[in-house]
Amino acid sequence: MSSVDFVFLDSGTGGIPYMLDLARKCPDARCMYIGDTAHFPYGEQTQNQIQHNAEILVQCAERHFHPKAVVIACNTMSVAALEFLRGRFPELPFVGTVPAIKLAASVTRNKKIGLLATNQSVNNPYTQKLIQNFASDCTVVRRGDPDLIAFVEKKLFTATEKERQLAVAPAAEFFREADVDTVILGCTHFTHIASDVQKAMGSAVKVIDSRDGVAKQALRIHRPSEKSDMNDNLSLFFTAAAPEQEKEYRTLADNLSIPYGGIISLFD
Fold this sequence. Notes:
The protein is of the alpha/beta class. It contains 11 helices and 10 strands.
């Protein structure tokens, strides 16, 4: 097929809000999305495993879609593999998604920040470097939450409001006890439940993510030139989804009015 403007890559459904945000900012953009459900979750893998899987994912994106740019719509993949991917594919522009620590440091009032992410992200040296560079005068309380990530990926899109509230409650209580006034959603999966986290934390706490910065950076490195209808240009592709899980992905696509592309092989 002809090349697309952006391919968004993630380990599952987490990066979809990032794709939608860019599409709202630039309706001319032709975007594709690959969720690597074959290797979900990335947050419990080693850095070498993440780099290996990310390389295969980029090769798949190049083979099928010939993107002008790739958005790594996954904090874990970004902190663990972004520099590796840039070295491996020097001709391809990449945009990473990293925890919004710089933004959090600029808006916190009491200098206490919560970081909600994967275990890999909260423990990665890249994250520590971000904290040292941009929030050295702050206390950053970190929480890796694989259970909440699994809930978002596997249950969220058919969950009741009560189930959503119960899912975010442990994280909200953890950060309340730490007296943070700002919470960073440092895993793109959590952008699906941003409003739930905000409700659980209360109006005195700012809940932030990096969607705006990622979209702006993507459009700085590549600006689409042809006009077309946004909805016609968005598709979701998921790898190795079990039939029962694929039903949830179709439900998600229907809820967001995005065409569902089906299962795509990483190796074809």
